[in-house]
Amino acid sequence: MSTTRKIATALLCTALIASCGDKTPPSEKATKKEAAETVKAQKVPRVSRPDAPGLTAATAALRRLQIADVDYRISVVLDSESDSFSGRVVAETEIARPLQQALTIDFSGGEVQSVSVNGQEIPIQYNGYFVTIEPGQLNVGPNTIAIDYTHPYSSDGSGLHRFQDPQDGNVYLYTHFEPYKANRFAPLFDQPDLKASYTVDVKAPADWQVVTATRENNIETLPDGRKHWQFPASKKFSTYIFPLHAGPFVVWEDKAGEIPLRLMARKTLAPNVKPDDWFTFTQQSFDFFQKYYGIEYPFDKYDQVIVPDFTIGAMENVAAVTFNEAYVSRGEKTQAERQRLANVIAHEMAHMWFGDLVTMQWWNGLWLKESFATYMASLALATNSEFDDVWENFYLRSKQSAYLADQLPTTHPIEVPVPNTAEAFSNFDSITYGKGGSVLEQLPHFLGKEAFRQGVSSYLTDFSYGNAELKDFMGHLGKAANQDLAQWTNNWLYKAGVNTISADYQCSDDKITQLTINQTAPKKYPLLRQQRIQLGIYRMQDSIMTRVAAVPVTYKGVTTPVKEAKGQPCPQILTLNDEDWGYVKTRLGEKSIAQVSQHINSIESSFTRLMLWQSLFDSVTDARMPLAEWIDFALNNAGAESNINVIRLISHHLEAAAAYAHRFAVPEELRSEQLQAIENFAWKQLNTAPAGSDAQKTWFTAFTDLAHTDAALGNAAQLLSGELKIDGLTIDQDKRWQLIILMNRNLHGDYAGLVEGELEKDNTDRARNYAISANAIRPTAEVKREWLDNILNKRDQYKLSQIRAAASALFPAEQLNLYRDFRKELFGAVPRVSDTKDTLYNKAYAMLFPIACSKGDINRYSQVLKQNSELMPALGRVLKNRRQQSQWCVAMEGRQLKGSGN
């Protein structure tokens, strides 16, 4: 960036801060009039908006200075037959100052029929990305801008998405706009700090339900039989969380106190929905959040709509949350699956206050709303739900994904500059969710639980219906706790990387005489941090490895003497982040490793066993333990484990171990022996797990990933046909597809006929995606060529969900030879894919690239990155990560060969 542009950006950032929000914090005692005068006094730099997709931070900041206020009236005409829809937007726009530059209105990929300002039609200036209105066409003060338009429905799960159910032909529509897709629905000022109210009316087929942020106040039947839905003005919120969903949904109703609740799903999915679970988790979450925040729910009603083809888990649209249909099972859910549903319900509800009521100014603040909701969802479940293992699940999912992401080359600080909306999308990652949530989890330990709660409540109160920044949030927390959090904020939020701690200790007369915590950091991110953790001291008592002492400690710097440990029992096992208070990697001492190796199943705490199993597998991926040694340990000890979370972790690690065994260049005899042993173990656990238990379901999933020998595939075929039954195991429709994909992955039996036959019985969109995966995973060059051609050259013939189903299945670890046969085409297409500027498509294409354990593959990654320095972030970041993961794989392979003596 040039010096001139740096200065301009700095000016824009200053202006953006000055003009923040629709509600000024009471502490500043500024009236709206005074705030408007402050906006008008800001110097407005020159910004040239390129004719290109997306929105830059500079353009958004300029527009925030141009516009003092805006509200919308949106009229839309929907039908079930057309591939497009029409609409009219009337934007009541208050211009803050005499305009020196054109005003732009975001609108991507549609057609504009007319534009008028204050009742006067003006020439249309529309380039496919935004509508331009010249300065002389607008007055200082109130203006009415009206635009008539049409736009195609989308098929990629964003904008206004259209889905036609293959079972009954019904059409369903829903919106998904984050971060910058509201302009694929209507011409809007599509940025988070231009909050507006929305008055909506919709013409739709007679049997459709129409849903937006408010409940309808009138439904009129039109002469042609359609219905005209009219909705009152909403409260002010950002464009990216505006909802409009429509279709012949099945509707269930309930209440949370006085808050009306509705749950909706398409007709053919409805029989599988369990509304009691949805409403129970929703009511429990409302009970928690209203008390915790100290603020009544601000949006009057609460709808939850389960939608198809969704590209993410769920979205916090104001009062009309959307959920991926993957949360609906066609069989009995495990407790872990029920907890995931409860967690996502709580996560989206947390956003109603933190994200919707109070919103970040720009997308650099994305992490805060997502991190906060990630943490708060787990806190809500741990406080007010049936689940007693919430923090173990937080450790399994959020923490582990964060640790991995933070060691990859694409790691970044939690808070980062976001120059444009394309970068915003690429920041939806495990740093944003997992690390951010993990770091926020520290703060109640660091500040005190009540101080943290009070800080959150005052922040939400002061900035209600407005926008805020990180400094506002941290300022309220610091004030509540009477602490200066500037250093904490800098170290944890503005610096990347994860630290590692270990401990040295000495004992005399079976008591600790000295204990020191040692902290290290990666070379690229050398910062040493401060945080509060808990040490766990474990000793064997009556054949049980018992925690005999827990020592809270705040460590910092290279070494921290722990005075509180002096006099405590000498540990047989010392855990350094007991109960997972902190965000840090830990390294067990040799004595602890020896005891863990002997007594892993005697440790009383399942959470501790969980963390120790993870620590052992970390030793493999860090190339400190040979994979074969870990496999032996796992197969000798995992069978005695009874805790479902530990079982889930071990089964996941066994699947990963099998994948690494395929990647390593080890003698075939050794590889076959390892894979056979893992397969046999999974089959045994499946058959011996308690009938109908979650452990049984977990081992079934592992078996369908690990089975590869004729004997195992024969067992799988008999499970599918019903010739073989395992007591308590129901082979529901989704499990049938798991088995069919396994058959196709190994070309076993009449694998193709199984797909065709199953589609005749299960003609759902989910089944069609399963069938695509089953086809794409077949280990033949013809199949790979066909699907690569479909993904690259025929993508307009497939929905995004179908492209993702194929790409995710095309090159599993045991098919690396086929991947290498197509490397030239795969890498050759990278610039062409990137040039589409389609973030979702780039993200799907990136699924094709595997961890490939050879220097030749690593060089291929390096070459394509060197030759294409400006790739779309959604693709370029994955290629960088795969190169790093392949390098780790080579190091692991070297440790394996060294450990085996080859």
Structure, briefly:
The chain is an alpha+beta fold. The chain has 30 helices and 28 strands. The relative contact order is 0.06.
Helix segment tally: 30
Average of the residue pLDDT scores: 93
Rg measurement, Å: 28 Å
Strand adjacency order, main sheet? 5-4-7-2-1-10-13-12
- CATH homologous superfamily placement of the largest domain: tricorn interacting facor f3 domain
The amount of beta strand, in percent, is 15-25%
CATH top level of the largest domain is Mainly Beta
Overall structural domain count: 6
How many E strands?
Answer: 28
- Coarse shape: globular
Question: What would you say this structure looks like, in words?
Answer:
This protein is an alpha+beta fold and 902 residues long. The chain is 44% helix and 19% strand. The protein contains 30 helices and 28 strands. The strands form eight sheets. The protein has an eight-stranded mixed β-sheet with strand order 5-4-7-2-1-10-13-12. A five-stranded mixed β-sheet has the order 15-16-17-19-18, covered by helices on one side. It has a four-stranded mixed β-sheet with strand order 26-23-22-28, with no helix packed on it. Strand 16, helix 4 (275-293) and strand 17 (302-307) form a beta-alpha-beta unit.
Descriptors:
902 residues; alpha+beta; Immunoglobulin-like; Neutral Protease, domain 2; 6 domains; eight-stranded mixed beta sheet; globular; disordered N terminus; zinc; ERAP1-like_C_dom; protease; metal-binding; alanyl aminopeptidase activity
Give the topology.
Layout: H1 3-18, H2 32-41, H3 57-66, E1 67-77, E2 84-95, E3 103-106, E4 111-117, E5 120-122, E6 130-133, E7 141-152, E8 159-164, E9 171-176, E10 198-204, E11 209-211, E12 218-221, E13 227-230, E14 245-247, E15 250-256, E16 259-265, H4 275-293, E17 302-307, E18 314-315, E19 320-324, H5 335-353, E20 359-360, H6 366-383, H7 390-406, H8 421-426, H9 431-447, H10 449-462, E21 467-468, H11 470-481, H12 486-493, E22 500-508, E23 511-520, E24 531-541, E25 544-555, E26 559-561, E27 573-575, E28 585-586, H13 590-599, H14 606-621, H15 627-637, H16 644-663, H17 668-688, H18 694-706, H19 710-721, H20 733-745, H21 751-761, H22 765-776, H23 781-793, H24 800-807, H25 816-821, H26 823-828, H27 830-835, H28 839-846, H29 855-867, H30 873-900
Parallel strand pairs: 1-10, 16-17, 17-19, 20-21, 22-28
Antiparallel strand pairs: 1-2, 2-7, 3-6, 4-5, 4-7, 8-9, 10-13, 11-14, 12-13, 15-16, 18-19, 22-23, 23-26, 24-25, 24-27
